[in-house]
Amino acid sequence: MRPHEPRVVLYVDDEPDIREIVQMALALEGLEVHLCESGEEALDALPRIRPDLVLLDVMMPRLDGPGTLERMRATSEFASIPVVFVTAKAMPQEIRRFKELGAAAVIAKPFDPMQLARQVLSIWEGL
Amino acid sequence: MPDQELERKLEEMGTRYLKRTLGELTRLGELLGHLRAGEQSALKEIEQLAHKIFGSGAMFGFDNVSTSARELELAAQDTQAADLLDRLSACIAALEKEAHDAARARGLE
After folding, report:
1. What ipTM was assigned to the predicted interfaces of this complex?
2. Which residues of A touch B1 (CB under 8 A)?
3. Which of A107, A113, A104 is nearest to A90 (CA)?
4. Contacts of A107 in chain B (CB under 8 A)
5. What are A76-115's pLDDT values in tens digits?
6. pLDDT, mean of each 10-residue run, chain B (109 residues)
7. Which of A11, A14, A17 would best serve as a mutation to test chain B binding (most B beta carbons within 10 A)?
8. What is the pTM of this model?
9. Do B10 and A21 count as a contact with CB atoms less than 8 A apart?
10. Strands A53-57 and A32-36
């Protein structure tokens, strides 16, 4: 059964500012936040971190968000971890495509840092 | 009081972002010079730098800085435009104005 709240969250983004904002916003709500700066690093870190939820930036150099999700889904151990894309590409047809790829939800960039924790928790509740 | 603490931290980070952006404007000017001198790789760097300024700026509430950076990013993507250099130059000047306005509003200048 899913815990009432995600305890451990992994955020993956190549932008240091945004990583820091997410870390602050979610940690202040009591979540344990881990940060990675690339899809490759996230895939390496998954066995160690074992997150309840993964937030993935879409546009990253080399392995992007969708590529990272695809590799996660191909690994039985991590296939069922819910993934949320965080992206500036949040037009309806793009959101549809991301959901088809298996994303649980899409958070549009720029997001309001003050609302992020609430947004993440509400996505979690809707899973 | 998580909200107040987050607000305070965001303000600190926003100030740091603005100072860094002012430094990056110098870099953008240099890159434009390289591009004028025929160094095509400078264009990609202008686009990436603009994308970064755009993405973080809006998070800190610097909407005008962010919008200007987005326009610069789009101009840099339109690589076939005949007036590419002029457009980049105008976008960088507009971004510079917005960054200085934001810095003044924060009491940094």
Report:
1. 0.78
2. none
3. A107
4. none
5. 999 999 999 999 888 999 999 999 999 999 999 989 999 9
6. 86 95 97 97 96 91 96 96 97 98 94
7. A17
8. 0.87
9. yes
10. unpaired
